[in-house]
């Protein structure tokens, strides 16, 4: 059996043993439909025949008892046909009070419905008391308590008893009338005494016998059809009970299956999923055995998915609407990883309706609101895991999604109790910040628009700052919040406002501290903080100086120590930040600069070692086998590391003397020959720059040029290793992305004033003047290790 899923999903072949076992149920529905059609047809024919022929043509000629038999049977059939469109039991049970009682009973037996958490701070529970442990998935967020008084409960119980009694009497009456009709038909067909003996020869009575035989025959055929259908009821009941147990549908399983069969048979709902339908979907999806297959079938029906999504927009006016939204939210949460917003444009608006403000009110309504908000933000986060869906948020004209998500990131000051820091509240905040992070790191033009919109929100930076300042913000939350700042700094408005907030920068600096050893999440936090500070400082001396104002000497040393970290990404980001701070420093930062300059031997030695490791695995101009994805990923990380280390070395060399550079080479146990060879290999291995290392060739050429200008003896090794040809090729093959200092979220940051070709041309013009001094003696101040 094949299922072609919607919205471009691939066709999936389902093994026989994994199919949902509802085929028997559908067959039973088909049999019921056939028998029902047969009974309706026989009944319609007998009523038409009786009214138009028997009673219409022979009403004065047939015997009085046949007249009354035909009239009563016809009246009964007319009543049955009229009432077949409405189930009397459902009509009576739909009384509001009885429905309320039944809902309470079902939820009590199933220990809650769609909610996933307990209410955390109940009115009778003090702030220091431990909340009850969370129950299983069906345990209920808020620990539902009955809203009915005992008197109302007794009234509803009596109403339900009266309804059941009346329904049972009605069904027995129908059964008795049916049996009586069959018995009468059999008796009249067996006796055949429709006409008195004196009238049998009359021409007016000739057709009476045939007409009544046909009428009673139709009554008998209808009765037999009804009898055959009734004999299958025990088998059908067992099948329904087995299906209920298979799907673990609970006490409401029979009602669920009955509603399914009714909707399937009558085809009156036109694909709409009601509360009972969405409840069974929710229940099946919570079962590991069937969830995968059920999800596949659900995804294949665009109409069904659209109906479930539309239920999220209900207004919670009634308990049924509230429960429908909850169950629908659970179902959409399971579907959300594969939802394409382009295929369901209304999904963002519907989900946004769930994103209400967090509250600490103890009422049931407020607790339901928190639970729906928790589900809503979970759904949005999973939908936004797909970058294409993030781009669809741009089309939200009134920015409802952005505003709702930003509002959910609001936390109180740590000394305020306006919002309790409960586990559910914390999860909502974390998920909301993750959604913001996914939106602001969107690439392309859509990403620029999203960052601009979010930067213009009046509360986003305040909320992020309070998250960073709150003492109960854990590492994961802080990492995501800082990631949002880093991406917002790509927008000019965001960069200006973040840079102007001393409190934000003051909270970023402590995140740089990483103990050794340190857990991976702490390293991620430090990397995120370094990245945010880097994006703020690059191409902005104002922001760089503000960062330097907040840094202490030990903080600067911490950054230098990161150059030896076990994390390649952390080493890379730290080197880039140090380079930006070193360039933008002023005379007051002499001690800071000395701390950075002292790291030059470490940098030069690391460049040589990393190049050797890389060259051993990638010897031929950076060529890799296409299938070796791991090696390509490692090569990319090494390229970014070399770019940052060489770049920092260039910035340090710009502010030191040639003699200090010679000391650094000796401390690193290097010579000009070895370093020039390593730099030539970098140009050889990274002939094609990437957004992960756009400036690797530029900074390498800059360091080579500085070496040539600092000491004339470097020219010998420049030509010996044919670096001149490599530099010329770089100038001739310069790419547009090499004009940017770095890339973040696909956006080029800090464009250089002049291309590489201009640097090379300037160096080439100065090279002859340096070369003419080559035969001379080495001066005392230029004692650089040569070979």
UniProtKB/TrEMBL annotation:
Residues 109-143 are annotated as: Disordered. Gene3D superfamilies: Leucine-rich Repeat Variant. Keywords: Membrane, Transmembrane, Transmembrane helix. InterPro entries: ARM-like (IPR011989), ARM-type_fold (IPR016024). It comes from the Eukaryota. The chain crosses the membrane at residues 38-58. This is ARM repeat superfamily protein. It comes from Miscanthus lutarioriparius.
């Amino acid at each position: 059996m094949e299922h072609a899923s919607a919205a471009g999903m691939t066709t999936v072949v389902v093994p026989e043993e994994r199919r949902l076992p509802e085929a028997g149920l559908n067959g039973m529905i088909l049999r019921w439909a056939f028998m029902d059609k047969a009974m309706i047809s026989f009944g319609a024919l007998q009523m038409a025949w009786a009214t138009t022929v028997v009673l219409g043509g022979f009403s004065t000629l047939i015997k009085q008892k046949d007249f009354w038999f035909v009239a009563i049977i016809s009246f009964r059939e007319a009543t049955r046909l009229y009432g077949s469109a409405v189930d009397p039991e459902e009509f009576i049970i739909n009384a509001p009070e009885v429905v309320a009682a039944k809902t309470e009973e079902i939820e009590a037996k199933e220990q809650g419905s769609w909610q996933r958490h307990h209410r955390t701070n109940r009115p009778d529970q003090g702030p220091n008391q431990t909340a009850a442990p969370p129950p299983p998935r069906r345990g209920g967020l808020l620990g539902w308590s009955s809203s009915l008084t005992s008197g109302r409960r007794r009234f509803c119980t009596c109403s339900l008893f009266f309804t059941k009694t009346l329904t049972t009497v009605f069904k027995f009456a129908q059964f008795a009338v049916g049996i009586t009709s069959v018995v009468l038909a059999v008796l009249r067909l067996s006796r055949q005494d429709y006409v008195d003996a004196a009238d049998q020869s009359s021409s007016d009575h000739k057709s009476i016998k045939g007409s009544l035989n046909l009428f009673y025959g139709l009554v008998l055929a209808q009765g037999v059809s009804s009898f055959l259908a009734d004999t299958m009821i025990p088998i059908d009941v067992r099948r329904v009970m087995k299906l209920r147990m298979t799907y673990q549908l609970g006490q409401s399983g029979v009602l669920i299956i009955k509603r399914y069969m009714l909707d399937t048979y009558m085809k009156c709902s036109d694909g709409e999923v009601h509360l009972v339908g969405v409840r069974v979907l929710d229940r099946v999806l919570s079962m590991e055995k069937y969830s995968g297959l059920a999800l596949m079938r659900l995804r294949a029906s665009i109409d069904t998915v659209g109906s479930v999504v539309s239920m999220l927009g209900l207004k919670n006016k009634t308990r049924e609407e509230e429960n429908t939204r909850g169950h629908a939210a659970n179902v959409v949460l399971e579907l959300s990883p594969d939802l394409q917003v382009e295929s369901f444009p209304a999904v963002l608006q519907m989900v946004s309706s769930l994103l209400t403000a967090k509250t600490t009110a103890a009422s049931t309504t407020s607790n339901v609101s928190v639970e729906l908000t928790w589900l809503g933000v979970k759904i949005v986060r999973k939908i936004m895991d797909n970058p294409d869906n993030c781009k669809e948020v741009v089309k939200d004209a009134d920015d409802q999604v952005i505003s709702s998500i930003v509002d959910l990131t609001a936390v109180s000051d740590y000394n305020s109790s306006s919002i309790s820091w409960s586990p559910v509240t914390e999860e909502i905040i974390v998920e909301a910040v993750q959604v913001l992070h996914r939106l602001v790191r969107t690439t392309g033009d859509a990403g620029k628009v999203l960052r601009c919109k979010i930067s213009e929100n009046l509360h986003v930076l305040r909320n992020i700052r309070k998250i960073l300042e709150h003492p109960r913000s854990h590492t994961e939350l802080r990492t995501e919040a800082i990631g949002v700042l880093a991406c917002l700094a790509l927008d000019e408005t965001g960069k200006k406002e973040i840079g102007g907030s001393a409190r934000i920068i003051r909270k970023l600096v402590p995140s740089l501290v990483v103990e050794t050893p340190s857990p991976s999440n702490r390293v991620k936090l430090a990397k995120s903080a370094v990245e945010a500070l880097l994006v703020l400082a690059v191409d902005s001396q104002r922001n760089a100086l503000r960062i330097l104002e907040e840094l202490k000497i030990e903080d600067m040393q911490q950054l230098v120590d990161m150059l030896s970290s076990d994390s390649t990404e952390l080493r890379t980001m730290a080197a880039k930040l140090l380079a930006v701070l070193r360039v933008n420093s002023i005379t007051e930062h002499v001690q800071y600069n000395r701390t950075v300059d002292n790291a030059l031997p470490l940098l030069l030695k690391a460049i040589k070692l990393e190049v050797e490791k890389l060259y051993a695995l990638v010897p031929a101009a950076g060529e890799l086998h296409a299938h070796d994805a791991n090696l390509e990923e490692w090569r990319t990380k090494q390229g970014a590391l070399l770019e940052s280390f060489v770049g920092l070395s260039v910035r340090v060399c710009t502010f030191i003397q040639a003699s200090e550079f010679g000391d650094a080479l000796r401390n690193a146990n290097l010579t000009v020959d070895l370093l020039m060879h390593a730099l030539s290999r970098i140009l050889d291995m990274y002939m094609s720059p990437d957004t992960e290392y756009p400036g690797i060739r530029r900074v390498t050429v800059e360091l080579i040029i500085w070496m040539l200008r600092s000491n004339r003896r470097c020219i010998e090794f420049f030509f010996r290793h044919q670096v001149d040809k490599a530099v010329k090729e770089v100038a001739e093959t310069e790419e547009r992305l090499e004009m940017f200092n770095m890339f973040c979220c696909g956006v080029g940051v800090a464009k250089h004033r002049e291309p590489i070709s201009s640097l090379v041309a300037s160096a080439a013009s100065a090279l002859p003047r340096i070369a003419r001094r080559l035969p001379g003696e080495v001066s005392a101040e230029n004692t650089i290790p040569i070979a």
